[in-house]
Amino acid sequence: MEKQNLPARRHPRLLVRYMAAIALVGFALFLTLSLQEYFKNVMLSPLFFCAVILTAWYGGFGPGILAGALSVAAIEWFLSYQVVALERGSNEI
Predict the structure, then answer these.
(1) Helices 46-59 and 61-74, interaxial angle, to 10°?
(2) What is the DSSP letter of 77?
(3) Which pLDDT band holds residue 60 (cuts at 50, 70, 90)?
(4) 3-class state of residue 68 by DSSP
(5) 61 in Cβ contact with 17 (< 8 Å)
(6) By CB neighbour count within 10 A (0-12 exposed, 13-18 middle, 19+ buried), where does 65 fall?
(7) C-alpha distances in angstroms, 16 versus 24, 54, 60, 76, 83?
(8) Cα separation of 25 and 75, whole Å?
(9) 35-63 burial string, b = 16+ CB within 10 Å, else e?
(10) What is the DSSP string of 23-63?
(11) Cα-based distances in Å from 54 to 9, 29, 75
């Protein structure tokens, strides 16, 4: 019997790790947006911290960095505008 090629065998596992990073950050974003209705004055960014920690634990350094970058982008894109909009008066918008 011939041995399987080791790098080709590791490739799907590496892809799963990076997909887990994207999925966990997406799940954290979904939970954050869903729970904002109930917790109006609370920033729910600890859910993103949990996503980054779980990704780094499961996937390692590279997927952890990806999860961190995606979390920062998601917070800036989806959540920071709402906080800034609350600080401004209606005549400033």
Answers:
(1) 160
(2) I
(3) very high
(4) helix
(5) no
(6) middle
(7) 12, 14, 12, 26, 34
(8) 10
(9) eeeeeeeeebeebbeebbebbbeebeeeb
(10) HHHHHHHHHHHHHTTT-TTS--THHHHHHHHHHHHHH-HHH
(11) 24, 15, 18
The pTM is what?
A: 0.73
Structure tokens given for 8: 């080709």
Question: Which tens digits make up the pLDDT trace of 1-36?
Answer: 555 555 555 566 889 999 999 999 999 999 998 888
Amino acid residing at 86:
L
Residues composing the chain = 93
Answer yes or no: is pLDDT of 86 > 80. no
